[in-house]
Write a structure and sequence with these properties.
- By secondary structure, the protein is α/β, with parallel strands linked by helices.
- It folds into 2 domains: 217 residues, Rossmann fold, CATH 3.40.50.300; 61 residues, Alpha-Beta Plaits (2-Layer Sandwich), CATH 3.30.70.
- It contains 11 helices and 14 strands.
- Helix 3 runs parallel beside helix 5, helix 4 crosses helix 5 and helix 7 runs antiparallel to helix 8.
- It starts with a strand and ends with a helix.
- Bound molecules: adenosine-5'-diphosphate.
- The site of adenosine-5'-diphosphate has 11 residues, from strand 2 and helix 1.
Length: 302
Amino acid sequence: MIEILEVTKKYRDTLALNQVNLTINDGETFAILGPNGSGKSTLLKMIVGLVKPTQGKVLVDGVDVWKNPREAKRKAVFLPQRLSFPDNLTAREVLSYYARIRGQSSGTINQILKEVHLNGASDKFIGYYSGGMVQRLGLGLLKLTPSKIYILDEPTVNLDLEGVARFKELIRELKSKQCTIVMATHLLSEAEQLADRIALLKEGRLIAVKNALELKRTSDADARMMIVFVEAKPHYREILLQNGAREVEITGDIYRVIAEPDKRPELLEALRDAGAQIERFWTEEPTLEYVYNRILAENGIQ
Ligand code: ADP
């Protein structure tokens, strides 16, 4: 269990975390969601003993991280946001090095290089790697280092689609082993897909903790339905509003409609009954900012 107790962090004039209280349970996949600068990295680094709380404390399995850093660091594996390895080493050498300092066998290295799709580049210098390849090597290190707790800072930021798919597989594998995973992300969809619970941070404050379904409901309810008609008529707007749309905004040919998900089929039917021909129709997720503001409003926060 990870307990974050009344934690505040000040960097000179910046209040990076403001009285955060949070408990993450064993076996839970927990996402910390927030825009840049909201305090996500600071919180993760505090869990692994790299940042000292100005006030409050963090306990990992009951161990005070700042008072017993050696013991606490052994409990969790940390994947930082900006990974850097010496340019003149190869992926294989990095993995071998880590295996050696951890007293592990290097027997699985070939398999790991294959799993993270670095087998073609495993003997090339890291200096020639793209950001995504470096990130994949980071995932390789996670695979090399069995642990019960994984702390991952924006793990998909540099990954291409294939890399993201591999990452999701890895998370599912760790989940099935009842590992505890704490990951920072600024992607709503990633948090919804992977996490059991999600904490929303804004300017160092914990705004809310939601389970994935609750968050999905909030974002679904505000997803915009986009409609392009073969020939738009002015009264279509009224039809939409009369049949349950909350808002209709028209930009050029595109009607942006906000309506509860269960109202959408009725809306399309009402349009069809009025003789409207729909050329294109799709939905667009609300932005993280939008979901925040809604949750802030729900919690009575300005
Ligand atoms: P996030 O991970 O959500 O982008 P961070 O935890 O990195 O947020 O940063 C939170 C705030 O603390 C930001 O305003 C950032 O500029 C500031 N900050 C982070 N690390 C330092 C540091 N070492 N020194 C001074 N300010 C910092």
